[in-house]
UniProtKB/TrEMBL annotation:
The gene is def. This is Peptide deformylase. Its cofactor is Fe(2+). The active site is at E148. GO terms for molecular function: peptide deformylase activity. Belongs to the polypeptide deformylase family.
């Protein structure tokens, strides 16, 4: 089932997600709905707060990035085959040089800005079967994980840009808040909640 994506300004996007257990109600269905929602919106990642659930869960499928011809064949193949569910994740280490990349977010449509993140992460998490993993990722995969991880910490990519850039996008953010935009996917806008 395709769920509405929560728009900028909704308080759920600012909450730190709560850890869940394998007994979380209808967990498999929640995950399946999140994948369907992400694919419908042509996203590469989606965190539970973006569908209104303040829990520590996000999903990723970096296949769309694999079509970038500026990347090497090895990186394209890694991106094409990377689909993963992260439950109760903790980034235990970030390494390497910070590098900029133009990021966007399904909860903040039509806004893209360069965000600087470290190039490598070590992350502990549970998969959808509640098996524990500790993995190291770098490049675009690490970046997408960092972006989604921020969501479960109540952080948005717009928090990581300069105050000048924030002023420049203020009107766009206000339009999202008020529901004055029309993305190609189902959204729930903060200012329209009480109406």
């Amino acid at each position: 089932m395709i769920l509405p994506i929560v728009g900028y300004g909704d308080p759920v996007l600012r909450k730190q997600g709560e850890a869940i257990t394998k007994d979380y109600p209808e967990l498999k269905q929640v995950i399946a709905n999140m994948y369907e929602t992400m694919y419908n919106a042509y996203g590469v990642g989606l965190a539970a707060p973006q569908v209104g659930l303040p829990i520590r869960l996000f999903i990723i499928d970096t296949k769309p990035f694999s079509e970038d011809e500026t990347l090497g064949k090895e990186e394209q193949e890694a991106l094409a085959g990377f689909t993963k569910t992260f439950i109760n994740p903790t980034i235990v280490k970030e390494d390497g040089e910070e590098w900029g990349f133009n990021e966007g977010c399904l909860s903040i449509p039509d806004v893209r800005e360069d965000v600087y993140r470290q190039e490598q992460i070590t992350i502990e998490y549970y998969d959808e079967d509640f098996k524990k993993h500790t993995d190291v990722y770098d490049g675009l995969i690490a970046r997408v994980i960092q972006h989604e991880y921020d969501h479960i910490e109540g952080i948005l990519f717009t928090d990581k840009i300069s105050s000048l850039k924030k002023r420049l996008i203020k009107k766009k953010l206000q339009n999202i808040l008020e529901g004055k935009i029309r993305p190609d996917y189902k959204m729930k806008f903060a200012a329209k909640r009480g109406r």
